[in-house]
């Protein structure tokens, strides 16, 4: 069978009768996140910020976090405008959660993310004390493993990724079954390549495959 994961692994869907979510997010946390999202919608209606709805991921609300684009892959947004967006988002988050007890803002190259913080028990208690950590895709793997009783040490595991947020997913699988993990990454980011090869894959066998573009065959027909 197969399952659909969403919101960095905080939501899982297998079929209409079998779907579940991370229960470390409570209603109060989600209310704060909704407040931030509504204020971000208002922000992006302003002419100076409207273009951020048209690039990358735009503005997206997930279960437990929000994503807002700040740059595109062609770097067409001037740095000062991206910085102004960051400052405006910081202001909104600080006003909604002035003690930073619940929400955390993280700055990426292409987007900004606002997360609810993870409970101390990470994925299994909505009443645990907040630890300050952020739910990641590694927690998502742990969640479905726990809920479904998966034995990841049996059989092969293929992990695919293209960004740094995918690394915890790979790391979690390597902890469970380092000998059975295979991974494919699509990226031109040299720093990410190094983290995959030297960091996350430290306990696994690395096989690097270079695919030559078509037309580079040595024995092309004339």
UniProtKB/TrEMBL annotation:
It holds the Pfam family T6PP_C. Residues 1-197 form the Trehalose-6-phosphate phosphatase C-terminal domain. It comes from the Eukaryota. InterPro entries: HAD-like_sf, HAD_sf, T6PP_C. This is Trehalose-6-phosphate phosphatase C-terminal domain-containing protein.
């Amino acid at each position: 069978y197969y399952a659909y994961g969403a919101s960095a692994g905080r939501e899982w869907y297998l079929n209409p009768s079998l779907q579940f979510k991370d229960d470390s997010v409570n209603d109060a946390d989600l209310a704060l996140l909704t407040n931030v999202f509504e204020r971000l919608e208002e922000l992006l209606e302003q002419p100076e910020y409207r273009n951020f709805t048209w690039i990358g991921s735009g503005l997206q609300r997930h279960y437990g976090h929000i994503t807002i684009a700040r740059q595109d892959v062609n770097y067409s947004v001037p740095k000062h405008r991206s910085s102004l967006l960051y400052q405006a988002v910081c202001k909104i988050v600080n006003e909604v959660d002035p003690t930073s007890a619940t929400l955390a803002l993280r700055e990426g190259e292409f987007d900004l993310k606002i997360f609810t913080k993870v409970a101390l028990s990470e994925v299994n208690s909505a009443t645990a004390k907040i630890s300050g950590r952020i739910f990641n895709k590694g927690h998502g793997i742990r969640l479905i493993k726990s809920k479904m009783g998966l034995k990841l040490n049996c059989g092969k595991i293929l992990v695919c990724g293209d960004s740094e947020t995918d690394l915890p997913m790979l790391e979690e699988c390597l902890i469970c079954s380092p000998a059975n993990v295979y991974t494919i990454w699509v990226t031109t980011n040299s720093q990410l390549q190094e983290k995959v090869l030297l960091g996350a894959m430290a306990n696994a066998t690395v096989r690097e495959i270079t695919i030559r573009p078509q037309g580079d065959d040595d024995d092309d027909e004339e």
